[in-house]
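Appendix C reproduces, verbatim, an entry submitted by the partner laboratory led by Prof. M.T., so that reviewers can inspect both the input and the predicted structure.
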Amino acid sequence: MTEETVLIEVEGGIATVTLNRPHAMNALNRALRRRLHAVMIEVDAREDVRAVILTGAGERAFTAGLDLKELGSEEGALGSANAVDPADNPVRAIELCSKPVIGAINGVAITGGFEVALACDVLVASTAARFADTHARVGIVPGWGLSQKLSRMIGIGRAKELAFTGNFLDAARALEWGLVNHVVEPCALIPLARRLAGDMAQVDPAFLAQYKRLIDDGYARSFGEGMAIEAERSSAANGGVSPEEIEARRAAVQARGRQQA
């Protein structure tokens, strides 16, 4: 029977995408990478999906990164670490999705798996989650963004510590360092991710996609360039909004706030 390397379940406007090779710590073999690309294209196109949760099957791993057995058996397979095609580069595949992607980190996220986690918009973790950058230990230069993204998220000194030692970062320290937004017991991980995804799903999807693109585009530039991008897009988008529409939206937000109080 052919292994279904990535599972997808859609309910209530939320797609839960699960990396499904638990016997191999959800390692990113070529079949999984290609399947993930197809699934991300699918969820991005589906009108009944407004937010996405990405997680790993089993209790041990979110994903351990590239499949080392496959790398050792296929000539030229190491080129996958520098692949540009989203069908071979899972980070690019995730970044194709215009909808918010919540990474629910259920276990270890190692090297390429760490890079996959960083491709998500928001990270939540179970107490069993651990992160490690072992590129230096295995002699592979990162090609999916880890060397640049991590230092911007947790600071250059902390990123260098992880990169140069290969040591694991546990969930509690990841929360302290601002890498993840929340840490909960394993049984509470997906329910938490679903609550956050449900909140995001209440926002107009076209506006949310636009806002996500604004944040990502600005984050990739200098602060001054980011501010210029915001000013340009804000002026273009807000000019056609009437005071009545703004007041109606403000009232809806205030009503929601009272319900949550």
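The radius of gyration is 19 Å. Additional entries are available on request from the coordinating office.
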